[in-house]
From TrEMBL:
InterPro entries: NA-bd_OB-fold, RADX. The lineage of its organism: Eukaryota, Metazoa, Chordata, Craniata, Vertebrata. PANTHER family: RPA-RELATED PROTEIN RADX. It comes from Drymodes brunneopygia. GO terms for molecular function: single-stranded DNA binding. Gene3D superfamilies: Nucleic acid-binding proteins (2.40.50.140). This is RADX protein.
Length: 306
């Protein structure tokens, strides 16, 4: 069928009622958002957004309501989609933004693709990777992996991806979303090493829309975290307080979930695997810890400093 592209959509969307099919690759995926309220009677008040791209650039795609439970887990980073009967709307200005792995990629920020179960009823088709043709010009998924030795020099709020061997995972904790609120964020702390520094990555991992992975993080697993944010210098001794926290677009993967993920081709991921092959598993196991209370940033040594 006749296809359109994202660049053409941005130029013509106001003058069109129906749009030609789109062929895009998913580059980023947000956590699932529940926006239900007691006074509003909605069957499935869910929303998730994705950053999708073709040869012309990248745009947000929003999945609404009952399409979320049907499609959310099937739409992975790297998946190629054929979209038909979708709607185009002006972008929501206050949405968080994923940081593209390819800094040169053009971003169409004024509009977004809206996928609904009606008005119009969107048709979504997943194209198997082996059927994707080079002439379609779809971009590859790119990452921004860093090593632990590079972390201390990165600015506050910098976006990056990391891989490491888990040496510590804390118990699941919770924090109120707002003061006096009944809603809580669920999170846990973890340490991961990659052989490039004596210090581990300190990771604050909030529960994403991957409960099966979040609950199974344990020492000695290979942990990949994407779209993490650098938190720098919270106290007078910044070298001890730099850590990484998940963002709205973070994805977490552990041993057993890596197969087929696009990051397995990344050079820094391959370097980490090579380093792990040179390590003694028995030696590493002796250094691992699980559970317990983990105060961070750590309080000063004396009350006087406090």
């Amino acid at each position: 069928s006749k296809l359109t592209n994202l660049g053409h959509l941005e130029m013509t969307w106001r003058s069109s009622v129906r749009f030609h099919p789109l062929l895009v690759r998913i580059l980023h995926k947000s956590r699932l958002r529940y926006y239900g309220k007691p006074e509003k009677k909605m069957d499935m008040p869910y929303q998730a957004y994705f950053e999708v791209a073709d040869g012309s650039g990248m745009m947000s795609m929003v999945l609404w309501n009952s399409l979320c439970p049907e499609w959310y887990h099937s739409l992975k980073v790297g998946t190629v989609l054929l979209l038909e009967k979708y709607a185009i709307k002006s972008s929501y200005k206050f949405k968080t933004q994923a940081t593209p792995g390819d800094a040169q990629m053009k971003r169409f920020a004024t509009i977004e693709i809206s996928l609904n179960v009606r008005d119009p009823p969107t048709e979504i088709s997943i194209i198997p990777e082996e059927m994707v043709k080079p002439e379609w010009g779809l971009p590859e998924v790119k990452y921004r992996f860093i090593t632990r030795s590079e972390l201390d020099d990165l600015p506050h709020n910098h976006s990056c991806d990391v891989i490491g061997l888990v040496t510590f995972v804390g118990r699941v904790e919770r924090a109120r979303k707002r003061e006096h609120s009944e809603d809580f964020w669920i999170y846990r702390w973890a340490h991961a090493i990659d052989g490039t520094s004596d210090q581990p990555f300190i990771l604050e991992l909030f529960a994403t829309s991957q409960p099966d992975v979040f609950e199974r993080i344990h020492p000695m697993t290979y942990l990949v975290c994407t779209q993490m944010r650098v938190i720098q210098g919270l106290t007078e001794n910044p070298s001890r307080t730099v850590y990484l926290t998940t963002s709205n677009e973070s994805q977490i993967f552990i041993t057993g979930w890596h197969k087929g993920q696009p990051y397995t081709k990344d050079a820094k991921v391959k370097n980490f695997i090579q380093w792990m092959k040179s390590q003694s598993e028995a030696d590493q196991i002796k250094k691992t810890v699980i559970g317990g209370y983990y105060p961070f940033p750590r309080p000063p040594d004396s009350f006087l400093k406090y």
